[in-house]
Design goal:
homodimer, 207 residues, alpha/beta, TIM Barrel, eight-stranded parallel β-barrel, 10 helices, 8 strands, 20% strand, globular, RibuloseP-bd_barrel (chains A, B), plasmid (chains A, B), OMPdeCOase_dom (chains A, B), lyase (chains A, B)
Chain lengths: 207, 207
């Protein structure tokens, strides 16, 4: 199982600093939507962030104009971009096609996406499907149960990422469960006083 | 009825040039999602775009972290920001609260949003509800019929914007229909060889 550390709501300088510190410690380093919307893809392209041993994910959260956004996104050094499961199926298929053509990865963010819609994405065989509990939602989220239910409903989906306030205890249980292929951790790594130490602790419990 | 002209997929310099040219000619000038994701809110804040006679809408398309994104968005000179109808209801309520507290406007983008979800937004009485046909969708869109159906299903919604490949003929019909409060026109104004002339022609048919 891979560990993805998401960096959000900090200055671009701070985001870069944390990203380079975590390079090679976690599998995937995410620059969150806040970094993209605050600083923009043109700036991220100019910064040319090169990770040696981790993949770079930009949480682009595309809702429309799929081809344009993904082509722009892959002009940066990103290995993985994200599209919203709630966008039109044509948007999802466009972004999937761009990512496949570029030999890059795509994560479909399933915030508030219903099962019928997910079934329509069955052509996107190589996509990572992201079970994602909104940061804003007041409802609680049982990641382990959600992953089990999702896998049962969608047995053909191979790559499952899970995000939403995951702590070390939950991470351990998700790893033991053996279904999800990636867990995504936000503030509990990037927001820790020592992100490297926090990342290593998460890596320990999931290995 | 108001006319909103959306500017997309051009350089920031070009976007600003078109925005200042259209100031006072159309009611609302939109800087589209492509401008925000390409250049970022920090840059837009620094540019401090001041329109004399039109409102400025930034098509932020918030999916999550509603409070953060809207507070950041209103640090720019924007009068109106957008949130996705497909995001969690808590996200929509957060963004609505921020916009009301700032005495600014919010447009809820209803791409792929079902009626049950729209009914949950009934607290957002002052929001503009945006009927929006995805640019990527292969299905055709009858704007006049869509507006009529929407108003019938949601009789308490007062402010309705409509977007999706609208030309002058459709704009005229929507104006005559008298339900929608805003029509949003993209490439047919901002992408015209003479955006000012195109905007004036649209204003003529809707007045």
């Amino acid at each position: 199982m891979k560990l993805q550390a998401a960096i959000d709501r900090v200055s671009l300088e701070e985001a870069k600093k944390i990203a380079y510190e975590l390079d090679g410690i976690v599998d995937i380093i995410e620059l969150g939507t806040s970094i993209i919307k605050d600083y923009g893809l043109e700036t991220l392209k100019a910064q040319n962030i090169k990770l040696e041993n981790s993949e770079l994910l930009l949480d682009l959260k595309t809702n429309d104009e799929g081809k344009y956004e993904f082509e722009k996104g892959f002009e940066t050094s990103a290995d993985i971009l994200t599209v919203m499961g709630g966008s039109a199926i044509d948007t999802i298929e466009q972004t999937y096609a761009v990512s496949q053509a570029a030999n890059k990865d795509i994560l479909i963010d399933l915030i508030e996406t219903n099962d019928d819609k997910i079934d329509k994405m069955s052509n996107c065989k190589n996509a990572i499907f992201g079970l994602h509990h909104s940061k804003d939602s007041a409802e609680s989220f049982d990641a382990v149960a959600s992953v089990a239910q999702f896998a049962q409903k969608h047995p053909n989906i191979q790559r499952i990422a899970v995000a939403g306030g995951i702590d070390k205890e939950q991470a351990k249980k998700i790893a033991q469960q053996g279904i999800a292929t990636t867990i995504i951790v936000g503030g509990k790594i990037a927001g820790a006083s020592d992100p490297v130490k926090a990342a290593k602790e998460f890596m320990e419990v999931i290995r």
